[in-house]
Amino acid sequence: MSASAVFILDVKGKPLISRNYKGDIPMGEIDYFMPLLVQHEEEGALAPLLSHGRVHFLWIKHSNLYLVATTLKNANASLVYSFLYKTVEVFSEYFKELEEESIRDNFVIIYELLDELMDFGFPQTTDSKILQEYITQQGNKLETGKSRVPPTVTNAVSWRSEGIKYKKNEVFIDVIESVNLLVNANGSVLLSEIVGTIKLKVFLSGMPELRLGLNDRVLFELTGLSGSKNKSVELEDVKFHQCVRLSRFDNDRTISFIPPDGDFELMSYRLSTQVKPLIWIESVIEKFSHSRVEIMVKAKGQFKKQSVANGVEISVPVPSDADSPRFKTSVGSAKYVPEKNVVVWSIKSFPGGKEYLMRAHFGLPSVEKEEVEGRPPIGVKFEIPYFTVSGIQVRYMKIIEKSGYQALPWVRYITQSGGSPPPLGPDCTWREDGAGGRGQTSDSLPSQPALPPPFSILYEEPGGDDPPPSTSALLY
């Protein structure tokens, strides 16, 4: 079973809009949600599922809104939460920003979307591109005659329309890897993982079938290609777009699919492996009592010299009562961000093998704080094109279409800093994390079917790199 009703509440718990799908729960039950939420929050036992009698509330928070689904029976919780997050994604596609104001300004469209997204408590059409074909933000003129149902809704391939034509047929492939690395003051690695996504931007005519080949270790073992000459990677937690034929992937590890038009995320994966810090950080903090504090930070690129890290930002925490900042850098620029109590050292271009230095001087008040402050970690943000840490490579992309046209597949590789790790203790002093120069959205792909500099044609040697050797990371 799935959801009985879906509510969108403001930050105070007042319903803004709702849709009752099954009618088996009184709509007034939502009044119990916010008191339950506040009670559990005060008790320190806040959970994504709250219950009042026989009614269960499954909820998520987005911006200043609560999205709540109610259910009376033993629902498929994973399905409900996936639906709530997908609802946020669809609304964001329509309104750019999903917040209370956009809800109040678009009641009619939201009611239409809620009717199409779910039917009798079960998710239906959740692809925003398909929904935008017949639910628009413009006023519709009255049309006489029979109503037209978009063919993509009833097609076996609901994510792609028929009759698509392009003068130039191309496919752009983005392999983006985010590095999550956490190192403590003793140089021990507390967290090390790679989270990767493969995103496509498709400009292909007709209804083509695509086959993507990776240097997947399981595939190499099945086909007898495993060996010292054929470097492979072992992918974990693989998640595919709905267009991929999962049965075929389970049988012979072939990634075969009919793609949606435009940009989409084909797959994501994770690798739990020891990663060498790509940008090594060392720092010395000298504190003079009742006077000043001096900070010296040294950054070294530990990747190949032919690669360049772009948009490097090194965030160094400073005491909350520091003032009168002065900086000296061997490259780039530094600025003090008092609201976050950090110094941000920005380096536009950081070649591999290079080493740079930054010095910061701060004044301290004459009366020193009694409490001992925690030591937040140093954070590093970056993006390295033409480079993958795991060594994953796109071996081929086959494009099969009945008209037999020629198409050009292009591929590029990018490594960037990953998402924020869990809260850290005082002994955790360094990390490579945060949002890199490229977010995990479709905007990371080219906006037009042109060839940006980081792309290379797939028939040439892919721009990936061998995984760096494992080390014990950073001493600081």
Task: Reconstruct the topology from this structure.
Elements: E1 5-9, E2 15-20, H1 33-42, E3 49-52, E4 55-62, E5 65-71, H2 77-95, H3 100-105, H4 107-117, E6 118-119, E7 122-123, H5 128-131, H6 151-154, E8 170-184, E9 189-203, E10 209-214, H7 217-223, E11 236-240, H8 246-252, E12 255-257, E13 262-271, E14 279-288, E15 292-301, E16 308-317, E17 323-329, E18 333-337, E19 342-351, E20 355-363, E21 378-385, E22 394-400, E23 408-417, E24 428-432, E25 456-457
Parallel strand pairs: 8-23, 21-24
Antiparallel strand pairs: 1-2, 1-5, 3-4, 4-5, 6-7, 8-9, 8-24, 9-13, 10-12, 10-22, 11-13, 14-15, 15-20, 16-19, 16-21, 17-20, 18-19, 21-23, 23-25
Main location: membrane
Membrane topology: Peripheral membrane protein
Keywords: Membrane, Protein transport, Transport
Describe the structure.
This protein is mainly β and 476 residues long. The protein is 14% helix and 38% strand. It has 8 helices and 25 strands. Strands 8, 9, 11, 13, 16, 18, 19, 21, 23, 24 and 25 form an 11-stranded mixed β-sheet that branches. A 5-stranded antiparallel β-sheet has the order 2-1-5-4-3, with helices on both faces. A 4-stranded antiparallel β-sheet has the order 14-15-20-17, with no helix packed on it. The longest helix has 19 residues. The protein is globular and about 70 Å long. The C terminus is likely disordered. It comes from Erinaceus europaeus. Keywords: Membrane, Protein transport, Transport. This is AP-1 complex subunit mu-2 isoform X1. It is found in: Endomembrane system. It is a peripheral membrane protein.
